[in-house]
Amino acid sequence: MILAQLSIYPVSEGLSMGRFVRKGVKIIEESGYTYQVGGMSTSIEVPTLPDLFELVNKIHQAQLEEGARRLIIELKVDDRRDKDASLAGKIQSVTDKVGE
């Protein structure tokens, strides 16, 4: 499983980016992938790197169609091969150890 942290946002459309972010989250939701929206980015679980790039491309295209003239894409990828990984597992690993 590929874990990714993704932010795609316009820098050409004024101060409010909400409609662009909502459009991207809707595309992720429709994909059926597990995801978690955060304050500054969205984390996603996808089966393969090509699946992730396809999703990023869909969001990119949708934001261009929404009227964005300049976009920033920030993508961080965790491709761990030695064991199964999930967003829930990463969070649980940290919360289990808080206070130790």
Keywords, please?
42% helix, globular, alpha+beta
Structure commentary:
Helices cover 42% and strands 26% of the residues. With 100 residues, it is of the alpha+beta class. It has a four-stranded antiparallel sheet, covered by helices on one side. A hairpin with a 4-residue loop joins β2 and β3.
Uncertain residue segments: none
- The average pLDDT score comes to 92
What is the number of helices?
3
What is the global morphology?
Answer: globular
The proportion of residues forming helix, as a percent range, comes to 40-55%
**DSSP strand (E) fraction?**
25-35%
Task: Record the strand order, biggest sheet.
Answer: 2-3-1-4
Task: Provide a brief overview of the structure.
The longest helix is centred in the middle third of the chain and has 17 residues, at 49-65. Strands 2-3-1-4 form a four-stranded antiparallel β-sheet, covered by helices on one side.
SSE layout and pairing:
Layout: E1 2-10, H1 18-31, E2 35-37, E3 42-46, H2 49-65, E4 71-79, H3 87-97
Helix pairs in contact: 1-2
